[in-house]
Amino acid sequence: MAECEICGADAALTEVAVQPKSETVSLCDTCANGLKGEAVPEGHWQALTSSMWSESDAVKVVSWRLLNRFKDEAWAADALDMLYLEPEVEDWAKAAGPEVIHRDSVGAVLSSGDTVVLIKDLPVKGGGFTAKRGTAVRGISLVQDNAGQIEGRVEGQRIVILTEFVKKR
After folding, report:
1. Tens digits of per-residue pLDDT, 3-37?
2. Which GO terms describe its molecular function (predicted)?
3. Which residue in 51, 54, 115, 131 could disulfide with 154, CB within 3.0 to 4.6 Å?
4. How many CB atoms are closer than 10 A to CB 117?
5. Chain-centre distance of CA 26, in angstroms?
6. In sequence order, what are the residues at sequence separation of 6 or more whose Cβ sits closer than 8 angstroms to the Cβ of residue 28?
7. pTM flag (> 0.85)
8. Strand, helix or coil for residue 154
9. How far apart are CA 22 and CA 160, in angstroms?
10. Are 134 and 154 in contact (CB under 8 A)?
11. For the chain, what percentages of helix, strand and coil (3-state, to nearest 5) are there?
12. What confidence tens digit (pLDDT) does each residue in 90-140 have?
């Protein structure tokens, strides 16, 4: 087993392409899933304060993008203030494409970790139950490449929910 290039975990690794150059970084499942917007253990991304100093430009780009995702938190803002990228690496980091913005049924912007309330009964395919209107879904995750979908836990199961059926609390 090798080390994750972000958190340093000794685990099975997945090669993840860092667009638009298609260079890759080796990430553990936690970091790879977190990169997609899934929830990670509290404090996991603190490892970015070390990975941002990597000699690999691809790791620096991933670190910069993740730090920007959490720039409202003091530790990430401090790290971003210290991080210097060569101009071509910074252009690469910013070239990720347009950021997907998730909005609820009334147009409020959703963020990872928000709490939403279902505005309609939703049958859960494969779950064998119906998620009832008024159910609070805490700690949502955003589906990175689809502005119309979020993920959250309802009755102990992780499900994908269309943003048109939720309202931010």
Report:
1. 999 999 999 998 988 888 878 999 999 998 888 77
2. hydrolase activity
3. 131
4. 15
5. 17
6. 4, 6, 7, 9, 11, 12, 13, 14
7. no
8. strand
9. 28
10. no
11. 30, 25, 45
12. 999 888 654 577 889 998 889 889 999 999 999 998 889 999 999 999 999
C-beta neighbour count of 67 within 10 angstroms:
25
Residue 130 CA to its chain's centroid (Å): 27
The phi, psi pair for 160, rounded to 5°, reads: -95, 135
**Residue 129 is which amino acid?**
F
* Residues 106 and 99 sit within 8 Å (Cβ to Cβ): no
Q: So what CATH class is 116-168?
A: mainly beta
Looking at residue 1, its pLDDT comes to 60
**146 phi, psi to nearest 5 deg:** -145, 105
Q: 108 is written with which tokens?
A: 């409020």
